[in-house]
Amino acid sequence: MLEMIERYLQGEMTEEEKILFKELRRTNPDVDQKVVEQHFFINQMERFNEDKKFRASLNEVHEQLLAEGNIKPYSGKSKVVQLWNRSKRTIAVAASIAGVTALVISAVVSSLAPKTDKAQIENLGRKIDILEKNQNHTRRELSDVKNKIEIPGEPAKFGGTGFLIDTRGYLVTNAHVINKAERVSVQSQSGVELSARKVFSDDSLDIAILKIDDNLFKPLSALPYAITKNASGDLAEPIFTLGYPKDEIVYGEGYLSAKTGYKGDSLTCQISVSANPGNSGGPVINKNGEVIGVLSTRQTTAEGVVFAIKAKNIFKALDDLKKDSNNLHIKLPATSSVKNIDRPQQVKKIQDCVFMVKGY
Amino acid sequence: MNTNLKEQELIKGLALNEKGAIETIYKDNFAVIQHLIINNNGSEDDAKDIFQEAVIVLYEKAKSGVFELNCQIKTYLYSVSKRLWLKRLQKNNRFELLANGVEETVHVEEDISLHEKRDDEFGMMEHAMTNIGEPCKSLLEAYYIHKQNMQEISEAFGYTNADNAKNQKYKCLMRLKKLFFAQYKNGNKNG
């Protein structure tokens, strides 16, 4: 097998072999996975080698420049620095208690080099950022507390996931997540709970649309992923999901395993990914950052068989919604801004748009 | 305009691992970084380490082909070095602030986190390569890195024929992959 994969990747196959192999790869996700893995690994090896060479050149240049006297060992340690070195531990301890580390060191440094304003300003700026963040955090906590007061001692009855489809706070989730709830709220990845209301729900599509109605919600400038009508995905295409099976956002990855859902249902497709209660309503996204569906149900009689509502049904839901309320213009994001970046970066950008949906 | 062009040439050279480019970048920038590190409780070796790591970050960026020269090489290296050193200080539970130099800085956070991932992978491959032992190491290097063909390899390593060498190579590759992915999957879980 490995030999075949290698010949395929190195372009040593005949046309006929190639066609056969491609077919095999298409129909057998296991083979496909192995091809991807081999390709990845060879790249890793080549990169390793190049990086190693580069590191060697760096050292060579360093030695050479040192020998030529083009760079010199540093000799300019001043008395103050030495003094500082000797007492730094004490000062650092004292400073960390008082929280004035920045100022203390800045003072020492500025006595050494007078032109230090810029960096100090920058560092202080960072401090202010932190302060602001802390303040925001406190505010969030306050609002959390407020929410809790409104519903004393009442935990959420229903839970699921939802994701933004419009920067102004419209989310899509599953109808089954919220249709028994009297009140809904959503909780962001950072833990802020925001009140929301249902603007649309269709049990046959199993799609609901929520709107965040909370002053704490700030409209985003753009959504990182794309939602398009024809993003149906290819068989064996790798996909990933984000959702809230627990109180924290959870990432899962897998592949598109069938273009239809349970018993040939054409509204949905089948994916292979680990999913648990609470994942319902989460986005199913391909590597280009296009939403191909909304995770909805899993087959209880089989392991790892999960169904997702195809993305085009979001459009259907919006069309229906427009019939009811004419002045509503929800604009789905048409292009993905997370194409060609690696997965952790993608997720970092996307996770802020994925919320926990709570029903009370 | 002119300096800009020169810098672009340097970056291109860097991506191709050209010694001239590395030398120029080294000469133009090392002293500033050295000053920065040593004035902030670093040693001579720390300075060398941090500077080289910063150049590697630049090299990775140059190689990825997406490097737009929105700042001078000098500014970029300074920003990366500063950030790297700050991270190292924090890791050792030392204090927070990094003293300044005369340079302005640019935002390099993403580049650094990308670099850290690559650096981890580099370490994993290095670890796998050292643990796989001989003759596997040389055999794989001969085929994948020096691009020798199976005939040459079988002669150099004393296999009776190319097919034997090939089989051995596959076995080695499997082992290397296993070693590498064992860490890779672990690392991803922890990260």
The largest sheet of chain B is: none
Beta-strand residue percentage of chain B: under 5%
Say how many strands of chain A there are: 13
- Compressed to H and E, one letter per element, the order of chain A equals HHHHHHEEHEEEEEEEEEEHHE
Q: Kindly report the greatest chain-chain contact and the residue count on each side.
A: A-B, 55 and 53 residues
Q: Which percent bin holds the helix content of chain B? A: over 70%
Unreliable residue runs of chain A: 77-84, 94-128, 145-154
Distance between the termini of chain A: 54 Å
- Taken as a percent bin, the fraction of beta residues of chain A is 15-25%
Poorly predicted sequence stretches spanning 5 or more consecutive residues of chain B: 96-102
Task: Provide the domain count of chain A.
Answer: 3
Shape of chain A: globular
Mean pLDDT across all residues of chain A, rounded? 76
Number of strands of chain B: 0
Total of DSSP H or I helical runs spanning 4+ residues of chain A: 9
Distance between the termini of chain B: 43 Å
Can you offer a commentary on this structure?
- The complex is a heterodimer of chains A (360) and B (191).
- By secondary structure, chain A is α+β, with helices and mostly antiparallel strands.
- Chain A has three domains: 67 residues; 64 residues, no CATH class; 205 residues, Thrombin, subunit H, CATH 2.40.10.
- Chain A is 42% helix and 22% strand.
- Chain A has a six-stranded antiparallel barrel.
- In chain A, strand 4 and strand 5 form a beta hairpin.
- In chain A, helix 1 crosses helix 3 and helix 2 packs across helix 3.
- The longest helix of chain A is centred in the first third of the chain and has 40 residues.
- Chain B is mainly alpha-helical and 191 residues long.
- Helix content of chain B is 76%, strand content 0%.
- In chain B, helix 1 packs across helix 3 and helix 2 crosses helix 3.
- About 4% of the residues of chain B have low confidence.
- Classes of the chains: A alpha+beta (360), B mainly alpha (191).
- Chains A and B meet through helix 3, helix 4, helix 5 and helix 6 of A and helix 2, helix 3, helix 5, helix 6 and helix 8 of B.
